[in-house]
Amino acid sequence: MLAYYFRLGVRSLLRNPILTMLMVLTIGIGVASSMTTYAVFRAVSANPLPEKSLQLFAPQIDIWGPQSRAQGADMPDALTYTDAMALLRDKKARRQTAIYPVNLTLVPQDERSEPFAINGYAAYADFFSMFKAPFLYGGAWNMAQDDTHAAVVVISSQLNQQLFQGSDSVGSTIRLDDHDYEIVGVVDGWNPKPRFYDVNNSDGFNDAPDIFLPFTRGIDLQINTNGNTNCYGSAGRNPGFDGFIHSDCAWVSYWAELPDAKAEAAYRDYLTNYAADQNRAGRFHWKPYITLRNLVEWLDYEKVVPPETRISLWLSLGFLLVCLINTIGLMLAKFMRRAGEIGVRRALGASRKEIWTQFLFEAAMVGVGGGVVGVVFTGLGALSVGLVFEPDIARLARVNTGLIGLTLVCALVSTLAAAFYPIWRASRVQPAWQLKSN
Fold this sequence. Notes:
Blueprint: H1 2-15, H2 17-45, E1 56-61, H3 66-70, E2 79-80, H4 81-90, E3 95-107, E4 116-123, H5 126-130, E5 135-138, H6 143-147, E6 152-156, H7 157-164, E7 173-176, E8 179-187, E9 211-214, H8 215-220, H9 240-245, E10 250-257, H10 261-280, E11 290-294, H11 295-301, H12 307-336, H13 339-347, H14 352-384, H15 391-394, H16 401-427, H17 431-437
């Protein structure tokens, strides 16, 4: 019977090719629009480190007082150098790191090559294990090198390819801003999207950083931050780099790894007590106020997902709904035109269940066709999504096996849902009336 219903469906679809093509195109275009925007939304809203996202926390400390919030300024999303160093010194987390972005000039060993700018981060040794950075060669520097302010560096695989043609460069030396650094590791193409560890200094979708160097070394050489600096109420700051780092300007990103809920609660208490100590020391003149957000909460707080992606997703789903309504109308017209055929089949003994099965087969064939068309249009949409979104975001939309499968399933399910009412109407055709009138 299934093969029989399949033959009936093919015959019916070929009987009205234009109407069939309209239904397939309507489903295909509607599904493609929603799948294209879903691909972008999925890329920007995905959990970048699902295995550790609930163990990584970004603390905030109120360093400006409630008057800043009353004037519309929220707590800074970074720490001051003073607070970051105090938290590092106390070592209340399993792992912790302070981070700030840097911009340096690399001087090639080949004198015929021109120096060029590179970007990266000053961080602590725990950075790489906390964020599970994979290594192609070598590894991270150690804590002792943090303490000795060692002139070491970890470079990206892209920079390694550019300077050393992809060979193992561990132990080699590169020159950055008139200072030599020994390469201790090469990161293997690591650039999580979004760049969760530094969303307060970027949109989270930039190109991979070129280098990582010890935070202590960056401070020693007075390498200025290449990121945001918030200095609310910082009048009277002492001049120079030393005055900057000891001011109440917030510019240091900070992360702590806390393995479980007990460690999280203890760290919250520690931050509250630290803020209270600053109050007693006369630095703060307000009630201690801190926050501690895990990675997922932090990305939501920083509004990493661009609002236009959410809006586009809802609009595309609305467009899919319009396409389904049109498909309902086309199917209803197609099925009810065959009322005489249905009446004859019912008079010859076909049950309503058999009528349902026959037309569900036909609708499923339309859905599969619409899914194939949807896959093609989704691919075209992924190539042209840069016309709507920023280039850094648009290039994240990729057509992979999962998206193809989801497109086909969505097209099939949507078509079957749209066919429900037309099939119900067709199954209610009265055989006696049809036989009399035809």
